Amino acid sequence: MENSGNCPSSKPGSINLLLLLPTLLLGVLLIAGCAAADKVESRGDKAPEKLLLFQKTPCFGTCPAYNATLYTDGSIAYVGLRYVPIKDSLQLQLPEKEFLELRKALQELNYPSLQKTYLSSYTDLPSTYLTFYENGKEQKRVKHQQDGPKALQDFITTLHEQIMQLVQEKAQSQQ
Questions:
Q1: Crossing angle (nearest 10°) for helices 96-109 and 150-173
Q2: Which of 12, 18, 27, 80 is 20 to 30 A from 103 in CA distance terms?
Q3: Does the predicted model carry a pTM greater than 0.85?
Q4: Backbone phi, then psi, for 13, in 5-degree steps?
Q5: Nearest-angstrom CA–CA distance, 105 and 158
Q6: Residue-wise pLDDT tens for the chain (175 aa)?
Q7: Closest Cα to residue 96, out of 78, 77, 73?
Q8: HSE-up (13 A, CA, CB side) for residue 87
Q9: Rounded CA gap, 10 and 162, in Å?
Q10: What is the third-level CATH fold of 50-173?
Q11: pLDDT at position 36, please?
Q12: Residues 18, 8 contacting (CB under 8 angstroms)
């Protein structure tokens, strides 16, 4: 069978060209992908800073006890201690809407005006410690057992419920 010369393989260098084009295309895609990855990493150079340390202490009963450190990106470092769905260290993430509401509630709370303690005469009540941070530095620590401003009580209740919901969801996903 005679080769008519219309077949690409009959031309000198045509095989090289067929192999070269996909190789060049792959190289361009790899370079573009690396450049895009560098841009993503450069946006997140600054590590999130502490915003609030929220601690619930044990009581003589079945009160939940845990520590939750909230960061400026909405992440939460959680450590479950007693009477919580998960007694372990977890990384949690507040949904963006809830995180924005939390930031707003923090501003409205006006924590610098809070007393250092809101104590109870009952010895078996749990305590809630709130340590407030600005620019990653501790600004104020408040111990709450009972009473105090309604805004503080509401803030504690809401934040506790949000954290417990995230932990419960994590516990269910691990089953």
A1: 160
A2: 80
A3: no
A4: 85, -5
A5: 10
A6: 555 555 555 555 555 655 555 555 555 555 655 544 444 333 456 899 999 999 999 999 999 999 999 999 999 999 999 999 999 999 999 999 999 999 999 999 999 999 999 999 998 899 999 999 999 999 999 999 999 999 999 999 999 999 999 999 999 998 8
A7: 73
A8: 6
A9: 71
A10: Mago nashi protein (3.30.1560)
A11: 46
A12: yes
Q: How far apart are CA 106 and CA 97, in angstroms?
A: 14
3-state secondary structure the chain: CCCCCCCHHHCCCHHHHHHHHHHHHHHHHHHHHHHHHHHHHHHCCCCCCEEEEEEECCCCCCCCEEEEEEECCCEEEEEEEECCCCCCEEEEECCHHHHHHHHHHHHHHCHHHCCCEECCCCCCCCCEEEEEEECCEEEEEEEECCCCCHHHHHHHHHHHHHHHHHHHHHHHHCC
Q: Where are the domains of the chain?
A: 16-43, 50-173
Tokens of 34: 């690396």
Cβ atoms of 118 and 145 within 8 Å: the answer is: yes
Whether the CA torsion 167, 154, 143, 52 is positive or negative: it is positive
Which residues on adjacent β-strands are paired with residue 95? none
